[in-house]
Design brief:
12 helices, globular, 45% helix, pantothenate biosynthesis (chains A, B), N-(1-d-carboxylethyl)-l-norvaline Dehydrogenase, domain 2, homodimer, 2 domains, Rossmann fold, eight-stranded mixed sheet, alpha/beta, NADP (chains A, B)
Chain lengths: 291, 291
């Protein structure tokens, strides 16, 4: 099977490595010709614990030609999705979007091609143009967003490996919302306060501020159950020493995913007419700080 | 006339210097015996532009004996006022509180002694234990909070100097509220964002966040007029390069005046039943960050 992976970040490299190892003909589509040349020459090395292996997929720059792949797995940042989609109009590939946000779901529903989300529960860290560290082995949940279910009937079986599992997820919307509410609690606040994830739990004042954000977001999403708040706290605890991706982006002077996370919720709050003063304040604050 | 000044910060030193120069017998009450000894030996030097003068008031540590002054001017941080008041119960002095917040006004109304606010519109910077720079000459507005008006009838005339004017202010509550709303817009946000005052005006996203805070605070205070927002912007512009006192406190690991500013407004919002989600969020955030 021909499988294209769009994006050479941590998730793109991770999927390209494992799917190539599963026996498919993988093409990695990169943004820069330097990274494509590097992968062509050196392959993709995946480090997992003490072990280190290299796979040799093809690599080319994205956007030069219409992809001929049976599947295209899109692993770019949420805000780059519209640019990727513009090059897809003539492609016949089935599409899998690997972002954990929700702001692209509406876009997906307008595509001609069958489209699914792949909810990624792996931890991965890019350590070079062709090197990825698989820090937290997990799984990928496949959820069909548009098109015939039959279009993805073989996907789970095709990609699944014991060391890199794929499972079907019928309640993909519930899973994405659960992830969204964790992101909306942790990401903007750690970015604003410049603290690691654990501080939001350990400092009672910051926890109280996070609780306020949670209640507003949960109200917008209609997810006011106790279990969701417990999951937010659990993730803070489990990732206590981590720098959130939004704080890392802010510190590196990169664009953050504030639009995909808080911007999406603001859109929902407008649709439903539910007030969201804190989310609006956080949105403007992070937008302002990313300069 | 015997005049005591409680507090050896910038405002305390400034008032002690000028009132001693006006011919009164000034005692400065300091927190540390080192500062009292320093002032006893070297006096208080006030720098204003190119000119520099020294006055020689008496200086002692606060709290050792009941003050015998005719007037006591209290120039401590808002959060130290309760501790100062505890030592005042037997004093017969008329009291003038030089803080620009509002959270102590209720306390003042419970005092036995006649009490006034002195709204300070001078800029001053402490440059040593006995040195103050008078950076922005302005004036002091005297407003009687409790007790007979007659008790303060002579105050304006007693303290007034051409270079250090005192004026009577009947609408002291309106003036303090105007200052409060400026403080509540500028102080917590500059502290949270770690930016100088001007950034709140120059960055359109941060300005929009400040506008949200303004609207909520103005609603709580019933001050929704256009002129108040214009004044907030004007102060941001005039003090664009300045580090706000709350940001400076946070950076130095000192306690901030968040209780006197945002805490006061939260109290008002509870009394009136007006919701204040952003003020509550800012309160918890700054409390959390000051550790």
């Amino acid at each position: 099977m021909k499988v294209g992976i769009v994006g050479g970040g941590a998730i793109g490299l991770l999927f390209a490595y494992y799917i190539q190892r599963a026996g498919h003909a993988v093409t990695v589509y990169t943004r820069t010709k330097e990274q494509a040349a590097y992968i062509q020459r050196n392959g993709i090395t995946c480090i997992r614990g003490e072990r280190e292996h290299t796979a040799f997929p093809r690599a080319v720059v994205w956007g030069l030609q219409i992809p001929q792949d049976d599947y295209l797995l899109v692993a770019v940042k949420q805000y780059d999705i519209p640019a990727v989609i513009r090059h897809l109009s003539d492609a016949k590939s089935r599409l899998v979007f690997l972002q954990n946000g929700m702001s692209h779901v509406e876009l997906m529903q307008q595509l001609r091609q069958p489209a699914a989300v792949g909810i990624v529960e792996h931890g991965a860290k890019r350590e070079g143009p062709g090197t990825v560290r698989h820090t937290g082995p997990g799984l990928t949940r496949l959820g069909i967003v548009s098109g015939e279910a039959a279009a993805f009937a073989d996907a789970e079986g095709l990609f699944h490996m014991e060391s890199f599992p794929f499972v079907e997820e019928n309640d993909w919307q519930g899973v994405l919302q659960g992830k969204l509410i964790v992101n909306v609690c942790i990401n903007p606040l750690t970015a604003l306060y410049r603290v690691s994830n654990g501080a939001l739990l350990q400092n009672p004042h910051l926890q109280s501020a996070m609780r306020q954000v949670f209640l507003e977001a949960a109200h917008v999403l209609g997810m006011e159950d106790k279990e969701h708040w417990e999951r937010v706290c659990h993730v803070c605890e489990k990732t206590a020493a981590n720098t959130s991706s939004m704080l890392a982006d802010l510190q590196a002077g990169r664009e953050t995913e504030i639009d995909a996370i808080v911007g999406y919720l603001l859109g929902e709050s407008e649709k439903s007419g539910k007030a969201a003063p804190l989310l609006s304040f956080l949105y403007q604050s992070v937008k302002g700080l990313q300069g």
